[in-house]
Amino acid sequence: MATSRPKKPVHNVHNGVNQLRIIGGEWRSRKLSFPDAPGLRPTPDRVRETLFNWLAPYVPGAKVLDPFTGSGALFLEALSRGAAMGQALDASSLAVSSLKEHLGTLRCTTGQVQTADALRYLETQTATAYDLVFLDPPFNQNLLPAVCALLEERQWLAEDAWVYTESESAPSTLGLPENWRLHREQKSGRVYYSLWQRSSKPSA
Asked: Is residue 40 part of a domain?
């Protein structure tokens, strides 16, 4: 996402363009460029590989939502691994334009991407129940609690949906919906990577 947030150094920078690599699935090993914009970087390969190992049984046939898609790395990885359809959003028109080009290059007709503010989109659009949601919002803006509340309250989630979050704060401090169970977590540097599973009722 083209917004300011603390980032680890980005490698593979060539003439103002960065590269990401799709790890698995139909487009395995494909390398795609994305703009060298401030704060725009893919989730690291190692973290993506771990995440999709966790999610392996659940990605094929899933409906995927990525409200802060940025480089599109997670979104493209899910589509490559057999997600049935996906909707990606980003506030940066530069990021959205790049991801649209990638979908065209890959001849992907199951992924849609548009320029939008995530909070406004979730508040105003007609909800679709998604099976898998990726949340990597700009840090230091306290966006995760608000976005997660909207996902739950506006019925954007399937009954047993999986939600992946990246945050600068420990998962236990995020104040996410009570009926979300922390399934797995990992920390790399200052970033927490967490996978949650929704249930239709809050835990007792």
From this structure: yes
Does 5 map to a domain? Answer: no
Cα–Cα distance measured from residue 78 to residue 96, given in angstroms and rounded to the nearest whole number: 17
Q: How far apart are CA 101 and CA 106, in angstroms?
A: 9
C-alpha distances out from residue 40 to 31, 36, 105, 112, Å: 16, 7, 20, 19
The share of the chain scoring above pLDDT 90, in percent, equals 71
HSE (CB half, 13 Å, CA atoms) of 167? 22
When divided into structural domains, the chain yields a total of: 1
What SS3 state is found at 39? coil
Which pTM was predicted?
0.88
Q: 176-199: b or e for each residue (b if 16 or more CB lie within 10 Å)?
A: bbeebeeebeeeeeebbbbbbebe
Integer Cα distance of 61 and 79 in angstroms: 9
What CATH number has the domain bearing residue 172? 3.40.50.150
Residues 5-16 have pLDDT tens digits of 444 333 333 334
Helices and strands (DSSP H and E) totals, the chain: 5, 9
Average of per-residue pLDDT across 180-189: 92
Asked if residue 44 is part of any domain, the answer here is yes
Q: How far is CA 107 from CA 21, 79, 150, 168, in A?
A: 17, 12, 32, 35
| Domain assignment of residue 23, yes or no | yes
